Amino acid sequence: MKVVEGDRGTALTVVILSILALMVAFALVQAYGAGATTPAKTIIVGDIPNAVAVDTKTGYIFVTDSGDNNVTAINASNQPVANITVGDNPSGIAVNSATDTIYVADTNDGNVTVINGATLKATQNISLGDVNAAPIGIAVDPTNGRIYVANSANNSVSVISNATNAVIRTISVGDNPTALALNAKSDALYVVDTNDNNVSVVNTISYRLLDNISVQTDPTDIAVNTQTGNIYVVNSDNNTVSVIDNATNAVVKTVTASTSSAAIAYAVVVDQADGSYYVTNSGQNTVWEFNSGNSLVTTITVGNTPFAEAINPQTGVIYVANFADDTVSMIQGASTSTSTGTGPTTTSSGNTGQTTTTTSSTGTSKGGVPEFPFQLGIVLLVTVAVVAAYVGARRTSVSRQRLGAS
Fold this sequence. Notes:
Helix 1 packs antiparallel against helix 2. The radius of gyration is 26 Å and the shape is globular. It folds into two domains: 5-34 and 372-405; 37-368, Methylamine Dehydrogenase, Chain H, CATH 2.130.10. The chain has helices spanning 5-32, 372-405; strands at residues 37-39, 41-44, 49-54, 61-65, 70-74, 80-85, 90-96, 101-106, 111-116, 121-127, 135-140, 147-151, 156-161, 166-172, 177-183, 188-193, 198-203, 209-214, 219-224, 231-235, 240-245, 250-256, 265-270, 277-281, 286-290, 296-301, 306-312, 317-322, 327-332, 355-356. A five-stranded mixed β-sheet has the order 1-26-25-24-23, with no helix packed on it. Strands 27-28-29-2-30 form a five-stranded antiparallel β-sheet, with no helix packed on it. With 406 residues, it is of the alpha+beta class. The protein has two helices and 30 strands.
């Protein structure tokens, strides 16, 4: 039997197509693979940003600069436009979008600074009645405008009337309350008692302490899914998230974010549009995204020591305050949400600065990384194409060999 050029052509075709398929598959997995790390856009802010909040009406972002004793105001175009002087060591911030008013917890002063969102000026200081109260967490009830402040040093929550800007009630909670979350639909306030490894549940109508929920060690932040009522508590000691059912006030699942000794889970925010939630990893400068089923979707690279988060439900953008490099990272979540808010917005600070970009993701939500089945499908299609090419080339070769033999 004669050896014809078709054999060599078949072999060369298969080799070339196989190399191309491998290159495409490798590139897709690198760019889109599950668990891939995608950098986020960043905004330069002030010294030691440690809390952040969003005005959903204007799209402005407000960041507490604990090292500068001010608040950086960032406009809807993500440009810093003002530095607002507040009290000593601002550590928590919340917005009443209905009245365009911002409230700042000044930890070392034991008071709350009130900012007019239209003029971007501080207008008043609200005394909490104890200069050593060390307020940290703060939240606004969207239904009645009342402000709740977690006083970490005297184990209480102050309730402030937005009509009078005065404390109208003080509620005793657990040891070292540091973070708050509201579920306006169920009239419930959830308070993280860090030293007790506990969440206090307070009724916002009667102001009575209804329940104490045990979580894991060293809880640091909390967020509520207002659609399902689920509560998410970050436990920084063992890098877990306690998922609480609001109907039973019981932990129904403990999600392990990481087993790495370098990881430090710290803050959490819920995207009300699809139920996903984002947990900062302060130890490794990343944010973990979990879907509503509590599965890890991807890991997103942010700035140095991500400390706090807030989300704009209109745009789906998550703002992450990076404590150690004076930046705020932006992550694209789901596009829109019809919810009215999740409660506390605890995140960092900043001075007026320049907006910069660090290799931002494009074309998709969720930090630019689709889930794995998408990539697997593309790789399988490429593989099928290679096999089909091989079969076609082989048939051609066999036909040529038969013609040559004859």
